[in-house]
Write a structure and sequence with these properties.
mainly alpha, transmembrane, single chain
């Protein structure tokens, strides 16, 4: 990442954007992408019915989005931290969480079990690459480091949920 000297107001504008928009969006996208994996894949592996995995994923994405919106919106007023309007941060975080969860839920609309799994896994890979790129672009975190750290979390969650789904 190239470092450029910014005028104080440009620096403040960038900092405000990162604190008030980009960080809540990243929190939501990462949480949605990771937290919804467990119920989706547990249901998919337990039932081999993509339709049920879709409904589990949709319900989880909606619930997680609402939960994260309230969590972020109620975490602080933004006055002391400079993080901006709590309602806007909550809306951004909630929308990001829903989006992060629903993207890899949509492949389970495919009625063939194996095809749905393959498309869902490809979607998750695309999500992880996109999240790593966003962390690199907005926060200067190394792309590979971001990808590996997010992928490890996803692999742990997917592995545990697959084991739970296989128990049935």
């Amino acid at each position: 990442m190239t470092t450029t000297l910014l005028r104080p107001t440009e620096h403040q504008d960038r900092r405000s954007f990162l604190l008030q928009r980009a960080q809540p969006a990243m929190t939501g996208l990462i949480d949605g992408s990771l937290s919804t994996l467990a119920p989706i894949f547990a249901v998919a592996f337990a039932t081999h019915q993509p339709r049920y995995a879709f409904f589990a994923g949709l319900a989880t994405a909606i619930g997680a989005g609402v939960s994260m919106a309230f969590s972020e919106g109620l975490s602080d007023t933004g006055d002391l931290t400079g993080r901006g309007n709590p309602y806007l941060r909550g809306a951004i975080t909630g929308a990001g969480t829903f989006l992060g969860g629903v993207l890899h839920t949509l492949p389970f609309l495919i009625p063939q079990y194996h095809a749905a799994l393959v498309v869902a896994l490809a979607t998750i890979t695309l999500e992880l690459v996109s999240l790593a790129w966003a962390r690199w672009r907005f926060f200067g975190t190394g792309f590979l480091r971001s990808f590996v750290s997010i992928a490890i979390g996803g692999a742990i969650i997917a592995g545990v949920s697959a084991m739970l789904g296989a128990v049935t």
